[in-house]
Design goal:
Length: 355
């Protein structure tokens, strides 16, 4: 089956963006904000909308583009449709089954990538997809999202780390570095399987330190333009991953812990969305063939992301609900600022007639 054209990929990306919008609004509803009724009713599936639906769509779409097989687009289609089902108030089972099918599709696409190039990073990317499937199955079998959360977080963290591992091939990295990386991934998988929160936190902290030490971003931060912006996004994200690990070592990942919100969003906002901000100018053109020119204005949403997240974490650590509530609102607004910045840059390029 032939690859899908860039125009055919846009509806899949749109489905993912709807899940993002619904997920953000559902998260705000959990903190007492008035939101449209569909999002308010979806407050209980904020996590699945953000991770399984939005990131599941985006990551599996990127993987489908990379392997160039039409059948691989069934994964982002299933993930995006699953998110729409959750927002539309369809039976929960529909969203769970569609998310599970999407994960299976991503595993199959990752298998093709391994067949083409057997390497440590392609195996790690496959493990990330497997984590997504395990999380979906845990949720499907138990109905308890809490059981799925460690696996869903690993889906994001391991996928990002695997992509960064690929780039270390272009650096004079000592042989021990890759062995340490594999050991850390193994530790994280073991901790998730055993349900040991502090071991899981130790693995996250170790991975953050590994990335800060060996990622090419350390070298690229001394460059200029888009390369430097990406490096700033990456390094700041690694700091948030380390913060999450430290909070987790204090017990923050335990359900009901007062710092749980701070720890989870240090990963999902501080680490993951910093990666999104950094990679969007590269991944979006690869998927849509729409180029995004670099401009220093991209630093504005990045700075706002970190400032508003710092306020949210502080609110969580000090049990200041109002601070956490308003910081969460500004977290959502920052995502709009980032999207608006990207759109403005594209339109500005078009007005100037640039290719």
């Amino acid at each position: 089956m032939a690859d899908l054209s860039p125009g055919g990929r846009l509806p899949l990306l749109f489905f993912g963006m709807l899940s993002l919008l619904g997920g953000v609004l559902a998260g705000l509803a959990r903190l007492g904000w008035d939101v449209p009724a569909p999002a308010a009713l979806a407050a209980g599936v904020h996590g699945p909308l953000m991770i399984a639906a939005f990131f599941g769509t985006v990551i599996s779409l990127e993987r489908a583009v990379a392997i160039g097989h039409g059948w691989a687009y069934s994964a982002p289609l299933a993930a995006g449709t699953g998110g729409l089902a959750l927002l539309a108030g369809a039976p929960l089972l529909a969203g769970q089954v569609l998310g599970t099918l999407a994960a299976v599709g991503l595993i199959a696409a990752s298998g093709v990538a391994i067949h083409r190039q057997l390497a440590s990073f392609t195996v790690v990317l496959l493990l990330g997809a497997v984590c997504w499937l395990v999380g979906n199955l845990a949720w499907l079998a138990s109905g308890d999202i809490t059981l799925a959360v460690p696996w869903w977080l690993l889906f994001l963290v391991i996928t990002i780390a695997g992509e960064r591992l690929e780039l270390t091939r272009f650096l004079p990295t000592p042989p021990i570095a890759q062995k340490l990386f594999i050991a850390i991934v193994g530790l994280l998988l073991l901790a998730a399987a055993l349900g040991t929160d502090r071991l899981f936190a130790a693995g996250l902290l170790a991975l953050a330190l590994w990335l800060l030490r060996y990622d090419i971003a350390r070298r690229n931060i001394g460059t200029q333009g888009l390369t430097r912006f990406i490096a700033a996004c990456l390094l700041s994200g690694y700091v948030w991953l380390a913060v999450a690990g430290l909070l987790g070592l204090a017990g923050a990942f335990a359900p009901g812990h007062g710092w749980r919100d701070a720890a989870l969003h240090a990963i999902s906002l501080g680490f993951v969305f910093a990666m999104v901000f950094g990679h969007a100018p590269i991944i979006f053109p690869a998927v849509t063939r729409i180029k995004i020119p670099y401009h220093p204005a991209l630093y504005l949403p990045l700075a706002l992301l970190h400032l508003t997240l710092a306020a949210r974490v502080l609110g969580g650590l000090t049990d200041h609900f109002a601070l956490r509530q308003y910081a969460a609102l500004t977290n959502g607004l920052v995502l709009l600022v980032f999207i608006a910045t990207m759109v403005t840059l594209v339109r500005s390029k078009a007005r100037r007639g640039l290719p």
